Amino acid sequence: MDFVKGQLVRSKAGRDQNRTFAVLDVEGEMLTLADGGRRSLANPKRKKRRHVAPTATVLGNELLKSDQPLSDAIKAYDAEHPF
User: How many domains does the chain have?
Assistant: First the structure.
């Protein structure tokens, strides 16, 4: 599956397993991810594609401009789609 900017993904591996992130950038096999909390837009996480599970939800660009709206959108998604 192809990942797109703003798409929400869930981590399948690592110490952040089962956490939800937004894709900021796609670079080959690597994704740049942020959640607006522990992983801010200023300090994103790089993770391999095979270590995340894609969702059908794609956030708009306005939510990717600062940490608080991104964090709120991810919390709302997690409330609607528990693990």
Answer: 1
Domain assignment of residue 12, given as a range: 7-80
Task: Kindly write down the DSSP assignment for every residue of 13-43, as one continuous string.
Answer: SSTTTT-EEEEEEEETTEEEEE-SSSS-TTS
Tokens coding 9: 């993904």
Dihedral sign computed on CA atoms, order 43, 78, 16, 5: negative
pLDDT digits (tens, 9 = 90+) for 15-63: 999 999 999 999 999 999 999 999 999 999 999 999 999 999 999 999 9
Asked if 29 and 49 touch (Cβ cutoff 8 Å), the reply is: yes
Q: List residues bridging with 10 in a β-sheet.
A: 20, 53
Helix (H, G, I), strand (E, B) or coil at 44: coil
DSSP state of 48: E
